[in-house]
Amino acid sequence: MDQTQPRATPTVTQVALIGLFVTALVTAQLTASKILLFELPFAIPVTGTDLLLPGAALAYALTFFASDCYSELYGRKAAQIVVNVAFAMNAVVLVLVWSTIAAPASPTGVDPTTFETVLGASTNIVAGSLLAYVVSQNWDVVVFHRIREYTDGDALWLRNLASTASSQAIDTVIFVTVAFWVAPQVLGVGFQMGTSGLAALIVGQYLLKLAIAILDTPLVYAVVGFVRSREATRDESVPA
Fold first, then answer.
1. How far apart are CA 195 and CA 171, in angstroms?
2. CB 170 within 8 A of CB 149
3. Range(s) of the domain holding residue 163
4. Radius of gyration of the CA atoms of the chain, in A
5. pLDDT interval class at 1 (50, 70, 90)
6. End-to-end CA separation in angstroms for the chain
7. SS3 for 137-177, per residue?
8. What are 168-227's pLDDT values in tens digits?
9. Are 68 and 220 in contact (CB under 8 A)?
10. Any domain includes 238
11. Is residue 240 domain-resident?
């Protein structure tokens, strides 16, 4: 007799949020080594009129939007599973990229050196991004649900902003410090920045992430509200 228990079919929303999370994470890993420079029409403390940030900042900020939506809809345990499985998948991506770089190259197609320069994340970037990811994303899920418990499920805006703002700060400080100071100094890999450069990069990256966290709050409400309204409609249509 078949003792296999039926499993719930993942919803489109679950698959879409997980897909967005993993896609943004992988994109961030592949774009992290490029340093972006934006000139501001006004000066801000530490950075002045030049806003410096890693190329991964925008893509990585989307992972917090996806994880907050997922946490709210499917709970803390499910969100932490997604975060930690995505961490493993990020490592798989790096192994696949590095193995492709190491494989023999044909004289036709993209120049191997160019390919390695563009896609081959350096050791300092990998060390900084992986450590920052595993700490900040798990912190985000924990804080999100702690606030949810304290507010009895109310004030979604508060837990979205507080969890994202604090985890983004942790992520930014860990990534920039490890990638551009600790790894170059201790491991001798990558480019080591001075304290002023590190401070400017941390401030620039965090300001962008904080702005995205504020702007994505209405989107979190929209996604959560839409999914819950559809679930309520579906439940009402099912005969008792």
1. 18
2. no
3. 12-101+110-230
4. 20
5. very low
6. 30
7. HHHHHHHHHHHHHHCCCCCHHHHHHHHHHHHHHHHHHHHHH
8. 899 889 988 888 888 777 766 566 777 888 888 888 888 888 888 888 899 999 999 999
9. yes
10. no
11. no
Q: What is the 3-state secondary structure (H, E, C) of the chain?
A: CCCCCCCCCCCHHHHHHHHHHHHHHHHHHHHCCCEEEEEEEEEECCCEEEEEEECCHHHHHHHHHHHHHHHHHHCHHHHHHHHHHHHHHHHHHHHHHHHHHHCCCCCCCCCHHHHHHHHCCCHHHHHHHHHHHHHHHHHHHHHHHHHHHHCCCCCHHHHHHHHHHHHHHHHHHHHHHHHHHHHHHHHCCCCCCCHHHHHHHHHHHHHHHHHHHHHHHHHHHHHHHHHHHHHHHHHHHCCC
Tokens (6 digits) for 160: 């979205």
Q: Sort strands 48-54 and 35-44 into parallel, antiparallel or unpaired.
A: antiparallel
Tokens of 219: 């989107």
pTM (two decimals): 0.80
Residue 21 counted as domain residue: yes
116 in a domain, yes or no?
A: yes
Angle between helices 156-177 and 123-150 (to 10 degrees): 160
Q: Both tokens of residue 190?
A: 């990558």
Place of tokens 């190491």: 102
User: Any bridge partners for residue 39, and if so which?
Assistant: 50
Separation of alpha carbons 82 and 118, rounded Å: 28
- Residue 35 sits in a domain whose CATH number is 1.10.1760
The total of structural domains in the chain comes to: 1
| Cα–Cα nearest to 83, from 17, 35, 161, 27 | 17
Which tokens in the block code for residue 137? 């994303």
Identify the residue whose tokens are 């719930």. 8
- Residue labelled with tokens 């003792």: 3
- If you search the block for the tokens 């994470």, which residue do you land on? 25
